[in-house]
Structures are given as structure tokens and as C-alpha cells.
Amino acid sequence: MLNSKIPAGSLDKKWEDYKGHCKLVNPANKRNMEVIIVGTGLAGASAAASLGELGYKVKAFCFQDSPRRAHSIAAQGGINAAKNYQNDGDSVFRLFYDTVKGGDYRAREANVHRLAEVSGNIIDQCVAQGVPFAREYGGLLSNRSFGGTQVQRTFYAAGQTGQQLLLGAYSALERQVALGNVTMYNRHEMLDIVVIDGKARGIIARDLITGKLERHFGHAVLLASGGYGNVFYLSTNAMGSNVTAAWKATRKGAFFGNPCYTQIHPTCIPVSGDHQSKLTLMSESLRNDGRIWVPKKQNDTRKPSDIPEDERDYYLERRYPAFGNLVPRDVASRAAKERCDAGYGVGSSKQAVYLDFAFNMDRYGRIEASKRQLSNPSADEIRKLGKEVVAEKYGNLFDMYAKITGENPYEVPMRIYPAVHYTMGGLWVDYELMTTVTGLYALGEANFSDHGANRLGASALMQGLADGYFVIPYTLGNYLAGEIGTKAFSLDHPAFIEAEKNVQSTIDKMMNIKGTKSVDHFHKKLGKIMWDKCGMARNEQGLKEAITEIQALRAEFWKDVRIPGDANEFNPELEKAGRVADFLELGELMCVDALNRRESCGGHFREESQTDEGEAQRDDANFAYVSAWEYKGDSQFELHKEALEFVECKPTQRSYK
Amino acid sequence: MKWSQFFNTSIGKKLLVGATGLFLCSFVIVHLTGNLTLLKDDGGEAFNIYAAFMSHNPFIQFLAWGLKIIILLHAIIALQLTFRNRAARPVKYAINPGNQTSSWFSRQMAIMGSILLIFILIHLKDFWYVMHYGELRPVTYEGKEYKDLYYAVYEAFKVLWVVVLYVIGMIGLSFHLVHGFKSAFQTFGLNHVKYNGLINFVGVWLFGILIPIAFAIIPVFIYFKSI
Amino acid sequence: MEHYNMNLTLKVWRQKNADAQGKFETYPVSGISSEMSFLEMFDVLNERLINEGKEPIAFDHDCREGICGACSMHINGRAHGPWAGTTTCQLHMRAFKDGDTLTVEPWRAGSFPVVKDLTVDRGAFDRIIEAGGYVSVNTGNAQDANNILIPKDDADAAFAAAACIGCGACVAACKNSSAMLFVSAKVSQLALLPQGQPEKKSRALNMIAQMDKEGFGSCTNTGACEAECPKEISLTNIARLNREYISAGMTYEK
User: Fold this and answer.
1) Fewest beta carbons less than 10 Å away: which of A64, A215, A391, B121?
2) C139 touches chain A (CB under 8 A)
């Protein structure tokens, strides 16, 4: 049975009590404790910096050429914190409540409450580091609002919040590197976990420049390796984002939690052709001022400007009059897919809907004209003034859209379509962020913990930094306190030799296939299966087909993939091949999990489980649990359940009508 | 931080180049004011008295030697930096952006500076050396004997290639200062939207155009007067 | 915007590893859509090279949305290609026309040694940050965020400097391979904020010392860095760095 080790006591006292009673490691002993951290995004970099400050000997690994390039850097919108600076009724409880509800009642209450409790400290810490958050004229911090909440609690730095937070954590990390507390291994990829006597004791990493395999010992191993959205090939993730570290852990006994929970973000720039390598997000904030519509006529090829108002279908406003264009991400995404599938899509691919700013540009223009006391302004003047207002709010996003599409979004409506953005699932962890392998931890997007079946905007940054700055420094100490007598294992320990041998043989096997198809060929095929059958809508038949297709594709991959070059050199194709091989196993598990969960919740929509109006329908009686999957061999997964108990937030059906 | 360290970093050296450069800019103005007496139609009296003053006044002599040291310092440090900058890119680009990303003048500082340095050496040999150590015919004003440098100048600029050489020197000066003047301000951290326009204007119009033309007019004027 | 297809000739720098001799290889590519990004055009070429049994071209890239700073191509003499304020990954093929010849080189600087083909090692930037590009504040030491008032203009200016993505285009574009824009961006961000004041002297001096040690050239104020910076970091930051250096160097006792 899974033990999530949630401390006893009332929800708001659990973390305080835990901190008061957890075991500590004294400074002299910390110097002898080695900690390995894989990944240097918000969770990894903040953990490495914090643990280095405490005096642990930290080794941090990233596959990028610098820890500063981890994909947290691309987060646009902001970071939530229950500061209540706006005096609008926010509180720790409200942030906790919104997050559990937004996650469609599939998250663990105790973890989410802890997240809300430390959220304020994160902002303090980042400001102290010199993160230049947006400010008001009085010099105080500025806030904006995001989807799924009724308060303004989102802190931001223009549209580059993730970048600024990551650079803050990165500079704290580099400071520890300079002090000798952290050793940084850039361009290194973790390829296996070394487990000795049931405890994680190290990793095998490949130096991506020389191709050499290295053995590294750690009293504990922390995975902060991000999410697995790239299993879909096309996603808003970076090209290198991968599941490899988490998957190797899974194969070594760590359970994988809720793999099927995927967030599909409604506002991304649509695919423009077969060449497409990734998708670009247009921030959620655009839905404040953009109205989403499609033509009322199917296969309408007229230009948007030629379609009169009464021939447009503002379908979100029609279906969800209460929330309109600001329904949560999962709802907006499904609605767009429904319209396109029914033949109302726009653009050359017909896989897009319009996000139109004209209406609000005119509205802003009239307000502006009134402010400036212009009498009888012409329509052109109004539009011009409105454009200026919109440019100030969203200028950088409009520029990005124009660069990618070549269209001017001030003149023509944006074309958008949903895209894979985030994965709520990940390695199952207990309250201390430890996986089912003793001494192996998972932080940030790599774990499954805090977002349930759907993540609210601006909460990913919060979780990554909470785990790294404020949770792991306590919970890791609680474990390492029992390890102070453990000497560093020799790197010639049979377990290290065995693990390295296995990694080497997998690489050799891959290199020796010398088949006919590129790695991308298989990745694209996998992505298509996943998108079609385990994407925005899933059903039993499709998922069963997908499992068979993925198994066949995986077999083909191991027979026919072609990896040029050598293993003992810088070889990006070999890196990709290893990652795609893991995606080919994870993809199957995602379908297995989606098949098992015969309910709709958050980002997971089972067509069999919907209301008469086509809305997602949860089944709390049968599925109020976390699915934690144990790897038992090729295509063999055993389900373990962690029952979810809701003490403070009683589940209700979400409605946005 | 010791002063030796302070002036030994890349920025410290740039500060020396900038400071010496701005000092030389001020010298250029003084030098031009004196030289313009060559154009006075008085048979050289004003110029020769000025030249005598400049070569005998102890204070001026002190400054003059200081000036030479500053020129050398400016040139040596700048060349040192230039070689280091070249070495910072051991493999060159096959294609360079040309004027798309920076002004032509800004990229020719070392070349123009070298032309200028060669010019200065020739110029010193031509006039400064003969004034101090060479044979010049005497001339008497109000009972006092002076060296007739004026005559030597007029003789020198009767030769076309000398005139051409001096004009080239002044083109070097112009191109060097179009960028150099304002660049020195940036090196000192003086970059402010309210003053950049003025600095740029002075750099281009006064030091880049007006002063070099005024200098160059002298040999050209003398040459045409002689034919 | 009209879409069109084009045929191009690519001259790409190929270099097996850091020690090998490199040279240009010419690749004709055809049927390139104007809607592709520059890197997607390379994906197409690489796919073809793999199918032909040749080695694909190695190049750094990751986020492909202009923020991670990994991509680094010198295209027809321009760092990140011809568009202003744009990374290579955001450059789209409609910047070019049918029949163009494109010469693609890695960042060229002694401090950025070539790893392979178009991939270079920018570890020098990390070491410069290590030398002082931070505020020394341990986790848990912070006071309430709103206790520090920062004028909006200062916060905005600090943000504009902090927007640097560490791609190295400034070094690549500078005829002296100078890293002054990179260093000045970090020094400026922290010099503009009250949090950065306690360490401002040592920060400026140490980061500059490390910059020199890494072998970057000096700044001759040509402005090429600013012109090529994908985040349009301003030269005023370099002026500020110079001021920081002067005031620190003239008063720092250590």
C-alpha cells in the first residue's frame, strides 16, 4: 500500500508540525553528505542553491550547455502567491482552495496547502535576489489576474516571468558553484539510477561532448527533470525536454503517478505544415481582450474581415455565457477542437479558430478618445487609439505572433489552436517528495504532486520554486539524518558497474541497429498516435488501438532506427534516440492510465464520461484516487492506488455556464 | 584595488586611451589656433613669434614633452588592445556584416590612428625637429632675432606630395575623431539621452570636420599661393 | 502574407570536434516553405543528410521561442540573421528569397571554442556570473517583498537589462569579441536595484576580471552588440558598467 506520509493534524498545521519535528543534520555532517540533482530548471536550480547553502556537497546535472537554459525560462505569465497585497480577499486558504478545485479534485490536499503556505516566501526570496518583478509607480509590487481565480495574486515580469525567476535561481546556483558547494555538470545526461540495498545511491551520466559514461555517487538523488509533453512530438516544450530521467527511475522501481493528465493549452499558434518542430504559446492573458470565434458556415473560405458579424459564432460566449472567453484551459481547448472537428475551423489547415481583438480595440479606443476629450472621433481614429492600448498590454506577444506567422495581428484576427503545454502527471512522491525508491526524490513538473488533473495558470513556477527552495531542504534532511553513518560508496561497487554496463549496452544496441529511418520519423509517428488517441479527447477504442500501435512502433524503432555518427562523440541524434525510446514506453503507459480512468477530469476527457451537454463528468465514487503505476517489465504495469481524501474542499461538479 | 590593477584591466586601459584621447583633442584646438597665424599676411611675424614662444617657454616645454608621452601612451595602449582584440577571434568570419551593424569609422580606429601616428612622426621631423635642433634662417622683429619657421613651412608646402601627405593626415584625424571623441565619453560612462546629441554633434562637426579642414587648408593655401 | 517555396544554397561550417580543422560544405536545399523557421529548414536538411547516410549538422537549440538563448548561428555575416531583435529560432524563411545563398557559421571567438559544426562552448558566460552575478542572499533570509520599495522606472530599467538571454550574439557580433554587453547587462540589473548595492563594488570588479581572464576583447564602442542583441539590450548598460568600474576601482580598498 502506498504511504504518502502525510503528517497528522489539521491541514493548516501539518507543515508547521513537520518542520518542527523533522530530523536535522548538523553542519559538520552535511559537509560529508553528497546530493545529486538532475535538472536545473526552477526546481533543480533552487534546490541545488539551497542545499549548497546548507553545506551539502551537491552535484547538479543538466543536458543544456548552461543551467540557465532549462525550459522554465520560457514560462511567460507569472507566479501565484497568497500575499493579498491587493486587499482583495486572498489568503493561503483561498489559494489552496482554488488550486484543488482548478485541479478538478484530483490533487492531494496536504501538498497543495503546503504549496500555498510557502508561496509568499517565494516572492520574498526572489525579490531579495534581485528579480525585477513588475512594479506600480509607488514602488510596490504589481499583480494581475489569471484564469480560475477571482483575486489578483499573480506576480510577473512582463511576459518573461519564468526567465527572471530562473535567472534568479541560476545566479544563486552559480554563487554556490563559486563557493565550491555545488559542482555543475553541463551537457551531461542522466541515463540511469544506481540503487544499492534498496536506496538510490547514484547515477550513470553521459558526457554529451565526449560520449563517455560517468559514475556519480550521492547519498540521495533528486530528479528535477521537468515534464514529458514532448511525447506528443509537437508541444510548447523545448526540443530537448524529455522524460528520460523520470523514466529510468520508473524502470528502477519508482512509481509513475497519473501519467494521463496532460494540459492542452487553448491559445497556441497553429501548425503551419509538416515541417513544424514545436508550437508556440500565446499567453492566457490574451483571452482577457480577445474574442474567440469561427464562421457559422462550414468550410467558409472568406477572409475574416469579409464575414459579417451575424455570420460569426462566438462559441465560448454562446456555450458558457457566465465565463465566456475566460473558461479554464481544458474547457476552452475542447470547445475549439469540437468546432474544428465539426468543420468550422479556419486557415489553410482548418485546424484553427480566430482570436479577435477588434471589438476590444474599438472599446479601448472609445475610452481613450473620451479620456482625451476628443469630440466625434472617426472610426479610424478610435481604432488607432485602441491599437495603442492593446500594444502596450500585449506588444511583445503580438510581435512574436507576427514574426512566426507573417501576419499583423493588429489588422487580422490571430489564428490559434490548442497545444500540449504541461503534464500534471509525473513520478509519484510522498509528502516529503520522495518516490517509492528510498532516497530518490522528484521535484517540480517531474513529480505528480500538486496540480491534480488540471493546473491553473501561474502555478507551475510556484510549485517548482516551492519544492526547491522551501520543501526539499527540510524533507531531505529528515532522510539524510539517518544516513550520516553511510560512507560514500566506491564507484567500483558492483551496482555502479552493472548500471553502467546496462547503459552502455543500450547505447551499443541502438547504435548497431543502423536502420533506415531517422529518430524524428519515429517521434513524429508517436506524436500523431498520442495526439489523435490520447490527446484532448480519449475513448476506450482509440486508447486500445493506440497501445497496439505504440507497441508496434516501438518494435519498429528497435529494428529500423538510424543513428549516424559514433557513440563516443557529441551526437545529438543519439541523445534524441535515447529520449524517444523512453517516450515510446511512456506513451503506452499514458494510454494504459487513460484507459483505466473511465471518468473525465480536468485535462483528461473520456468521451464515455460526459454530461448531456458535452461537459466533462467526474466519477468521484470510483476514481477519487491517484494512479501510481509500477513498471514490471516490457508493457507490464501494475496499478497502485492512493486514495484521495478531501477534508477542506468537498468535490463539486465544475460549471462555467 | 591598486592603481596598477585598476589601469591594467580591459576597461582600465580603455580609460587611459579615452583620457589621453580627450587630452589630445584639446591640444588639437590649441595647435590649430597657433597654426592659423600662418595664414596671416604679415610675412610670418605672428607665426614666428608664436613658434619661438612655444619652443622656449619652460612651462610649454614641459607640456610639450608631456604631450609626446601622452601620444605614445595613447598609441601604445590602443595598439596593445587592438592586438588583444584581434587575438580574441583566432578564426575569422567568412562573411562580415560591414556597415549593417556598426559605423565604418568605428571599425577603422586602429588604421586611422596608425596613419595619424605616422603623420605625427613625419610632421615632428619636418618642423619640430628643425625648429629645435635644425638650421633655420634667422629673422628679426623689433630688434629681436627669431628662427624663420614660417619660411620653412612655406618652402615645405611648395612640394605637392608633402601637401597631399598632410591632407591624408588630416583625413586620418577626421575619421579617427568622428568616432573617437564620442567613444571616449561612452568609455567614461557618460551616456545620457539628453547629452548624447550634443557630444555626437561636437565629435562629428567640430572634431571630425571643422578642425581637420582648417588644418588642411593651411598647406593647400600655401601650395596654391606658391604656384 | 503570401506563402512561397524557395530553393537555396547553404554554405555551412562543418567541424568534427574542437581540435579538428573545419571547412565549409555546400548544400543545395529545395522546396523550403516561407513559413518555416530557420531551424526547421535545418531540420529538413538534417533529415535528408541522415537519409543519405551522412552526418547531420550539429547546432544548439532548445526552446525555439527566443528565450533560452541556445541557438547561435551567424548567417550571412549577421549574428542570428538579418532580422533585428530576433534569435535564430525565431527567424523565419520569409526573410529570404528563392535562389539566395546563405553562409552559416558558428559564433567565432576564442572564448567560445567550437564543440562541433555550429555548436560552441559558452561556459565562459557561466564563469563570469560565478564571479559575482548574484545577490548573496541564502534561502530563507528574505524580508517581506514589499518592504523594499523600488521606483517603477528603476525596476523597468533593471528588467530591460535582465532580459539578456546569454546567447553570446554580442560577442559574436563584436569585431573584438568583447563580452561587455553581456557583463554590463547583469551588472546593470543589480546596480539599479537596492538589493544589489552591498556587493556592487566587488561584483563589477570581479566580473570584469573574469571577463578579461576568459580572453574576451575590449569594447571599442562600435555598437554592433546592441544592433545584434535579440533582446535589444542597450549600450547605456555598457556606460553604466564603465561607471561602476570607475567608482569601484577608485574606492575599493581590497
Assistant:
1) B121
2) yes
- A621 burial via Cβ count (<10 Å: 0-12, 13-18, 19+): exposed
Residue of A nearest to C166 (CA): A68
Q: Which residues of B touch C212 (CB under 8 A)?
A: 9-10
Amino acid at A509: K
Tally of domains in chain B: 1
Of C74, C208, C240, the CB nearest to B189: C240
Q: Which residues of A332-369 are buried (b: 16+ CB within 10 A; e: fewer)?
A: bbbbbbebbeeebbbbeeebbbbbbbbebbbebbeebb
Contact C129, A184 (CB under 8 A): no
* ipTM of predicted complex: 0.98
- State which residues form the domain around B61: 10-88+106-226
Determine the pLDDT at residue A185. 98
Write the CATH number for C171: 1.10.1060.10
Q: Is A561 on the interface with C (CB under 8 A)?
A: no
* Contact call for C227 and B100, based on CB within 8 A: yes
A513 touches chain C (CB under 8 A): no
Amino acid at C7: N
A268: which strand partners?
A: A281, A417
pLDDT category at B84 given cuts 50, 70, 90 is very high
**What is the number of structural domains in chain C?**
2
Beta carbons within 8 Å of A595's beta carbon, 6+ residues apart: A540, A543, A544, A547
Q: Are residues C132 and C240 in the same domain?
A: yes
Q: Verify whether the Cβ–Cβ distance C61 to A140 is below 8 Å.
A: no
Q: What strand order describes the sheet that includes A262-268?
A: A262-268, A414-423, A353-356, A291-295, A312-313
Q: The domain that contains C103 carries what CATH number?
A: 3.10.20.30
Neighbouring chains of C at 3+ CB pairs within 8 Å?
A, B
Q: What is the DSSP letter of C28?
A: E
Q: Looking at the structure, do residues C61 and C110 belong to the same domain, yes or no?
A: yes
Q: Where in chain A is the domain with CATH 3.90.700.10?
A: 265-420
User: Which residue, among A227, A185, A620, has the nearest Cα to A449 in the 3D structure?
Assistant: A227
- pLDDT at position C1: 57
Residues of C in contact with A128 (CB under 8 A): 135, 137, 141-143, 145, 148, 195
Contact status, residue A278 vs residue A230, Cβ threshold 8 Å: no
Domain, as residue range, for C48: 5-116
Check whether residue C165 and residue C182 sit in a common domain.
yes
* Residue A15 grid cell: 507543515
Tell me whether residues C141 and A164 touch, CB distance under 8 A: no
Q: Which of A50, A74, A400 is nearest residue C63 as measured by Cβ atoms?
A: A74
Portions of chain A given CATH number 1.20.58.100: 493-623
Q: Which residues of A are the active-site residues?
A: 329
B198–C contact, CB cutoff 8 A: no
Question: What CATH number does domain A265-420 carry, 1.10.275.10, 3.40.50.300, 3.90.700.10, 1.10.10.10?
Answer: 3.90.700.10
CATH 1.20.58.100 fits A493-623, yes or no: yes
The upper half-sphere exposure of residue A180, i.e. CA atoms within 13 Å in the direction of its Cβ, equals: 1
Q: Are residues C97 and C32 in the same domain?
A: yes
B and A touch with 3+ CB pairs <8 Å, answer no
A528 contact C CB<8A:
no
* C19 touching chain A per CB within 8 A: no
Looking up residue B73, the CATH number of its domain turns out to be 1.20.1300.10
Across chain A, which has 657 residues, the per-10-residue mean pLDDT values are 93 97 96 97 98 98 98 93 96 96 95 98 98 94 82 90 97 98 98 98 98 98 98 97 98 98 95 91 86 95 94 95 85 92 93 95 94 91 92 84 93 96 98 98 96 93 98 98 96 98 98 97 98 96 98 98 97 98 98 98 95 91 97 97 95 82
Given C90, C116, C142, which residue is the final one in a domain?
C116
